[in-house]
Amino acid sequence: MRWLIVFLLAFLVFQGLAGWLRRIGLGRLPGDFSFRWRGREYHLPIASSLVLSLIAMAIGALI
Q1: What is the CA 49 to chain-centroid distance, rounded?
Q2: Boundaries of every domain in the chain
């Protein structure tokens, strides 16, 4: 259950900081999907969310 909370928090952080994170390479990893549907563009940053959640878990383990 704890990993799900970390994953969702990483997903929310990614959505909030998407522009800045794309400049450093996150959001364009293999496993991050972007598609257009009905004139809108949607992003599903699955791989980037996993990377961010692993980083958050490592920081949480150290604290």
Answers
A1: 3
A2: 2-62
Q: What is the pLDDT along the chain (63 residues), one digit of tens a residue?
A: 788 887 788 777 767 777 777 787 777 788 888 888 888 877 787 888 788 788 888 988 998
Long-range contacts of the stretch 15-21 (C-beta < 8 A, 24+): 15/45, 18/43, 18/45, 21/48
Determine contact, residues 29/47, Cβ cutoff 8 Å.
yes
**Cα angle for residues 29, 23, 20 (degrees, 5° grid):** 105
* Closest to 26 (Cα-Cα) out of 4, 58, 49: 49
